[in-house]
TrEMBL record:
Pfam (any one): MaoC_dehydratas
Residue ranges occupied by any MaoC-like domain in the UniProt entry: 164-262
Species in which this protein is naturally found: Rhodococcus erythropolis (strain PR4 / NBRC 100887)
Entry keywords, A to Z: Lyase
Classification lineage: Bacteria, Bacillati, Actinomycetota, Actinomycetes, Mycobacteriales
GO terms classed as biological process: fatty acid beta-oxidation
Top-rank taxon, per record: Bacteria
InterPro entries, per the entry: HotDog_dom_sf (IPR029069), MaoC-like_dom (IPR002539), MFE-2_N (IPR054357)
Name this protein carries in UniProt: Putative enoyl-CoA hydratase
Record bears the keyword Acyltransferase: no
Molecular function terms from GO: (3S)-3-hydroxyacyl-CoA dehydrogenase (NAD+) activity; 17-beta-hydroxysteroid dehydrogenase (NAD+) activity; enoyl-CoA hydratase activity
Amino acid sequence: MPIDPKIALGAELAPQEFSWTPSDVQHYHLALGAGARPLDPNELRYLDDEKPQVLPTFATVAANFHATEAPKVSFPGVEIDLAKVVHGSQEVTVHQPIPASGSGRTTTRIAEVWDKGKAAVIVQESVTVDAEGNPLWTARSSIFARGEGGFGGERGPSESITLPDREADETVVTPVLPQQALLYRMCGDRNPLHSDPQFASAAGFPAPILHGLCTYGMVCKTAVDTMLDGDSSRVAGFRARFAGVVFPGENLSIQIWKDNGRLLISASVLEREAPALADVVLTLV
């Protein structure tokens, strides 16, 4: 049985110890499209050689930044073919601005396992501290495993966000470079779904798709640049549900609403009028 919720639920994964440098941060930001405005001082803050400002979404890649092999979906009580898995949601809460360089230790547990009938959703919760034990960030992520439901578990709650019934305060079109997925995979996510046309076809896609976490980071950066004067230290948290696929070469239409100390965001693919991210919330410090 690929999923045994009795074993999986609450299981702790092996701790990860890692470090990062300003070059890693620069690389991550470039993979999100940073540098498109090379004369803009706010844009260049992402690419400073010594102390680049760090988007909070860097937390999603920091521990595995230098990985060179495709990930495996193999946890206690969980064994799933990678081709069946897509990212479901992601949330990051930063407890202080992420430094341009440092070291961390991440502990992860399987927090929830939901049975959606034809699919399963597995939620992981991770806590990362620095070398002195001070909290850096907490992350929650879910994966959606097609064909792995039906084991008799609960369906889980809905966390949908209702957008304001008015025009967005800002609408921004952010281009996805044709090579965006190939750039982003160098941040440690070597899943061939994002680079290998044959693998993508076997998984049911006409071409390799953009990493959901790349879309996640691009939308966060767009919101910071548009609404926060390019100051990532004003972000306390960022969460989103992955609502559809994005292909390299497309454009993201990003709508942003101010809402009582937070930003509510919707992101779709401009060319296909198809959803990309939903239930997106950026919380402010």
